[in-house]
Amino acid sequence: MTTKISSVKNDLIKDIVNLQSKSRERRNRNITLVEGIKEISIAAGAGVKFEKVLYCTDLVTPDEVLELIGKQNTDTHLFELTSEAFSKISYRETTGGIVVVAKTEKPELKDLPLGENSLFIVLESVEKPGNLGAICRIADAAKVDGVIICDPLTDIYNPNTVRASLGCVFSVNVVSAGYDDVKQWLSQNKITSFAAELTAAEFYHECDLTGKTALVFGTEATGLTDKWIHGADFRIKIPMSGAIDSLNVSASVAIMVFEAKRQRGFLV
What we know:
Elements: E1 2-5, H1 11-21, H2 23-29, E2 31-35, H3 37-45, E3 50-56, H4 62-69, E4 77-81, H5 83-89, E5 98-103, E6 119-124, H6 129-142, E7 146-150, H7 159-164, H8 168-171, E8 174-177, H9 179-188, E9 192-196, E10 202-203, E11 213-217, H10 226-231, E12 234-237, H11 249-263
Parallel strand pairs: 1-4, 3-4, 6-7, 6-11, 7-8, 9-11, 9-12, 10-12
Antiparallel strand pairs: 2-5, 3-5
Helix pairs in contact: 1-5, 6-11
């Protein structure tokens, strides 16, 4: 079914604007907003269910919309917006003319896949949606088995996270859990944890990162807390040759994750 909307004062338009700025509302309703052709394509490819699809025919055709959202969303309510109405809900200039309201999942640690060479990224109290999105994109590229967000300080499905990840927040297994639960899960499943830490004695590339492995990273501002520094099995660091002593957390994740993949022969 398709409904046409021309007024910027329409209740649905107001609701979308509200959802863009209020993470609590998104979490309470288990939904998020996905904007951009690439992001929507990856979400659809990952089997995400769309509740509503809003598009502007000046920018995209109905047939293109149906092709993009995937077969699992063919019964989704479509809304055809005028340019004025669409500009009200679009926070990017390069959206491709479509915004979707997507259902969000809340997987748990027990849902993560486990194998002999499983690789996980653990993020302690990640704060910035852009960094989380970039790390999800890295996780997708490296095909890690899961991103575990320990005691998060940001909304996993913040629209900026979705944008920075190019939709990969939907294509990777992202789980949120507390420190004690994560530590217990790692121990029970015999997963070796490596804490990325500036004063560590060992360099990451000199360690055996094969087997069931969790790479643990701290916040952008202060790094890991003592409980992770002393609670991990090993402490590792990246050699730094310049004046600066650390890298952006997403850069550190990329370096260490792809070293772990190299040691596995880049096997999927």
